[in-house]
Amino acid sequence: MIGLYHFLILSGVLFSLGVLGVLLRRNALVVLMAVELMLNAANLAVVAFVRYPMFGDGGIVNAQDYAAMTNGMTLVFLVMTVAAAEVGVGLAIVINLYRQKKSVNIEEANALKG
Amino acid sequence: MDALLPSLLFYAFAGVILGSAAFTAFARDIVHAAFSLLFTFFGLACLYLYLGADFVGLSQVVIYVGGILVLLLFGVMFTGHQTQETEKRTVNFYWGLALIALLGAGMVPALLKAPWAVKSAAELPEAKSTISSIATLLMTDYLLPFEIASLLLLMALIGAVVIARGETKTDEGESPETSA
What we know:
The structure holds two protein chains of two kinds.
Chain A: H1 4-24, H2 28-51, H3 63-69, H4 71-101
Chain B: H1 4-26, H2 30-50, H3 54-78, H4 93-113, H5 131-139, H6 143-164
């Protein structure tokens, strides 16, 4: 039976793929996509925790508690808002970088390097 | 038989998500990466529905697929189709793998050993529509975060316009940061 751990491990692997994408890829747009992967992994963990409640010990969750558990879902919407804002500003930065360097390779954005 | 179908569904969605996410992270062609991100987002939406989070799943499709992914594809098309020659794959490869191994070695045991008071599937509450309770929460308990989120979106909107605006039309005196 699928439980909380399945979702947590899936979320962890997805997050790790996002970290790998950020670390390994040199294309700024792929880096943005990998950041989206990480945010989605966090969202998946939140929704899994909402579905598999942890409070109390034993006892069936009644309908009122279930309504209270949707608390966690509002957090997901905030994360989605942040993701949308992040990709909007990130894309603007990438476009500016492309305009300056004619490339979206993040290796070339080294003007601030000491 | 009752428990088999949910497990099969979970593993199918998980396979789609991980496969397409790995393709996104490693594909040479950026257009392929963007399109495989589509399958990741859809798979995650299916898993949200699987978890009984109906509104979150629908929002996932609307926001991520309809908004963020289209924005990313717009960026891909805007910056041209230059991929292969700019990729030097081996720069951070072993360091990255080592970091991920460290992350996994720390995270997975922590996840498995943490004392979550997990309920068994039999005593899970019946999944119901969450839309009305989310709406109520956003307008009552979480009104301030809701407003902060809208403020954040406004700031991101203005910031994106300011950053991405072409500098051809601005005067020198108006934008001193461009004269450097």
